[in-house]
Design brief:
By secondary structure, this protein is α+β, with helices and mostly antiparallel strands. It contains 4 helices and 5 strands. The chain is about 30% helix and about 30% strand.
C-alpha cells in the first residue's frame, strides 16, 4: 500500500523519463569505488549516425592524455534507446581541479589533434556536474 502511494505521488512529479542500455568502451578504465570527496562530471555527446567506430578509435588514443590524475571514471555508449550517444564520467576534487586538469590536457602534445578529429563527429554535447550521495560507491 505504501509503495503504491509512493508511485502515485512520484508520477505527479515525473515529467519525463528516458532509458538507455549502455556498454563500456573496452579501452576505458572500469569504474571502481573511489574515496572522496569528489565531484563528478558527466559529459554526454550525441554523435552523427555512423561515426561511433571513428569516435572510439580516436578516444582509444586520446584517453591516455586524461589518465594521469585518475579522473577518467568510465566511458560508455548506447546500445538501446537513443543511439550514437556517448557518456564520459570524470572525477575531480572540485571545480578548480576540473579546470586545472582540463587545461593541462591542452598543454600535452597530441591532445589537440584528437579533439580536432572528434569535434566534427558531434551533433550536440552536454556537461552535468554531480555530487555523489553518501550511499554511492563513487565518493
Amino acid at each position: 500500500q505504501e509503495y503504491m502511494e509512493f508511485r502515485k505521488e512520484r508520477s505527479r512529479m515525473l515529467l519525463s523519463r528516458r532509458n538507455q542500455l549502455l556498454l563500456e568502451f573496452s579501452f576505458w578504465n572500469e569504474p571502481h569505488p573511489r574515496q572522496g570527496p569528489n565531484i563528478y562530471e558527466l559529459r554526454t555527446y550525441k554523435l552523427k549516425p555512423g561515426t561511433m567506430i571513428e569516435w572510439g578509435n580516436n578516444w582509444a588514443r586520446a584517453i591516455k592524455y586524461r589518465q594521469e590524475n585518475q579522473e577518467a571514471v568510465g566511458g560508455f555508449f548506447s546500445q538501446i534507446g537513443e543511439l550514437y550517444v556517448v557518456h564520459h564520467l570524470w572525477a575531480y576534487r572540485d571545480l578548480q581541479s576540473r579546470e586545472e586538469t582540463r587545461n593541462a590536457a591542452w598543454r600535452k602534445r597530441g591532445w589537440d589533434e584528437n579533439v580536432y578529429y572528434t569535434v566534427p563527429l558531434i551533433r550536440s554535447m552536454e556537461s552535468r556536474i554531480m555530487i555523489p550521495l553518501k550511499i554511492s560507491p563513487l565518493q
